[in-house]
Amino acid sequence: MEVRVKVVVVGGGTLVGDALVRVVGGRGYEVCALSPGSGADPWAGQDLGTHLRGAHAVIDVALAPVHEEAAALRFHRACTAALLTAGTAAGVAHHVVLTLTGSGPVPHSGLFRAKAEQEALVRDSPLPHTLVHATRLFDFIATLASLATPANAALLARATVQPRAMHDLAETLTDIATAPATNTTVELDAPHHWGIDHFLTEHLTEHH
């Protein structure tokens, strides 16, 4: 009997997670989507050992539900530590983490600092892994716009972003996860650079 490759997607219900589930399932792999909670124990009530049993790869695209530094750090520490422990026990062959820290100094943001610490935990673990640095995604523009417009006032940063289509990112992450682990960091870049303020201005103009 043919044994199907099992891929666990951590971050089900998010834009990237849902795209991954579609791509992984569309390639004929067995896919299991997990969604961590937001409390002190993000995996409360979930049996990670059972979910990860027989998995070839874990792709972690979960993001802390809050960006305040202490809370984001607690979330990613707890999520990652539990996944690494369960993955090691289950014999997972490849642990993939999507992170947005990029190269160079860590930006002054709680979420970015939490993701940087998450990377360190993965690098120090015995699990074969690949860390993926990806640029901002076109698909996040609507979400960013809603977050940036409290009380009808747009608060726009001038930071530079490199958009990448959600489906393309999901395809690339699936390629990486189903290939041998490199124990390195993969940098994914898009061909163009724009400012967040430019993107949100364009988005808000088109939808009002």
Describe this structure in words.
With 208 residues, the protein is an alpha/beta fold. It has seven helices and eight strands; from the N terminus they run E-H-E-H-E-H-E-H-E-H-E-H-E-E-H. The protein has helices at 15-26, 48-52, 69-90, 110-123, 141-148, 166-177, 196-206, and strands spanning 6-10, 30-34, 57-60, 94-99, 129-133, 160-161, 185-187, 194-195. The strands form two sheets. It has a six-stranded parallel beta sheet, sandwiched between helices. A two-stranded antiparallel ribbon has the order 6-8. The longest helix has 22 residues, at 69-90. The radius of gyration is 17 Å and the shape is globular. The chain starts with 5 loop residues before the first strand and ends with a helix.
Descriptors:
208 residues, alpha/beta, 6-stranded parallel β-sheet, two-stranded antiparallel sheet, 7 helices, 40% helix, 15% strand, globular, disordered C terminus
Sheet with the most strands, sense and barrel status: 6 strands, parallel
Number of helices: 7
- Which assembly state applies to the chains in this document? single chain
Low-confidence stretches: 138-163, 191-208
Brief summary of the model shown:
With 208 residues, this protein is α/β, with parallel strands linked by helices. The protein is 40% helix and 15% strand.
